[in-house]
Amino acid sequence: MDWVPIVFVTFKVVALGTAMFFAIKWHYDQGKKANTRALIRTGGKMVAIFVLAVFGVGLVAFVLSTMLGLDLGFR
User: Fold this and answer.
1) Residues 43-70: what's their mean pLDDT?
2) Taking a C-beta distance cutoff of 8 angstroms, is the pair 62, 54 a contact?
3) Domain range list for the chain
4) C-alpha span between 25 and 34 (Å, rounded)
């Protein structure tokens, strides 16, 4: 029973390492073919979506906590 974690952890490290290698290689190869302007535009859109999502989650959390009676006032 002592060998099971060693085998599973080793397998997991090898499998994830291999998958990460090929994922990075694929993205690197795709980046060579990509248009720089389109890449920057897509990155900007993703940043904008992320900022809006963070703001939305914060707003929902604030409203929900206020409805539950938590004091979130700044003093």
Assistant:
1) 93
2) no
3) 3-67
4) 14
